[in-house]
Amino acid sequence: MARKSLVEKQQKEPKFKVRKYSRCKLCGRPRAYMRDFGVCRLCFRKMAAEGLIPGVQRASW
């Protein structure tokens, strides 16, 4: 879980636009962020396994 102070800091408009960065919408994790889904890889795996992301299924071959 991300620190609350850093999540709030990220939500403010930065002084310069290059300082902006993305965080997971669910847990606030700044790394391993997937832009297409708006969540980190950990939350993505959890949601995909539960079937909460339409069009995503586990690989099998």
Structural class: mainly alpha
Low-confidence segments: none
| Biggest sheet strand line-up | 1-2
The SSE order reads HEEH
Approximately how much beta-strand content do the residues carry?
5-15%
Query: DSSP helix count?
Result: 2
The outline comes out as elongated
Total E-strand runs: 2
Helix percent band: 25-40%
- Overall mean pLDDT stands at 89
Rg from Cα: 14 Å
How can the largest sheet be summarized? 2 strands, antiparallel
State the separation between the terminal residues, measured CA to CA.
34 Å
Summed up:
The protein is mostly helical. 30% of the residues lie in helices and 7% in strands.
Can you give a write-up of this model?
The chain has 61 residues and is mostly helical. It contains two helices and two strands; from the N terminus they run αββα. It has a two-stranded antiparallel ribbon. A hairpin with a 4-residue loop joins strand 1 and strand 2 (39-40). It is elongated. The relative contact order is 0.15.
